Amino acid sequence: MSIDTETARRVAKLARIAVEEDRLPALAEEFNAILGFIEQLQEVDVEGVEPMVSVTPMRLPRREDAVTDGNQQDKVLSNAPDAREGFFAVPKVVE
Length: 95
Fold this sequence. Notes:
two-stranded antiparallel ribbon, 95 residues, 3 helices, 4% strand
């Protein structure tokens, strides 16, 4: 696939990027270089290769998945402009 100047103009417009007319050919070349690199990547055989988080084998730190209330209700509600009975009070918006 090859990107021409008109396509580069359209992509710039869709991305809401202001590109001057004399810069459109260079932008089209950059797009073509990116697409060429993607085509190269598609030729790589990755069959049987596990996805990695890092180049060194490591496990991400994990914590116990436990539900807590945080025990900070008073601290949280102290920031509210209006709190009643342990909840945030907000003005009525729909009648």
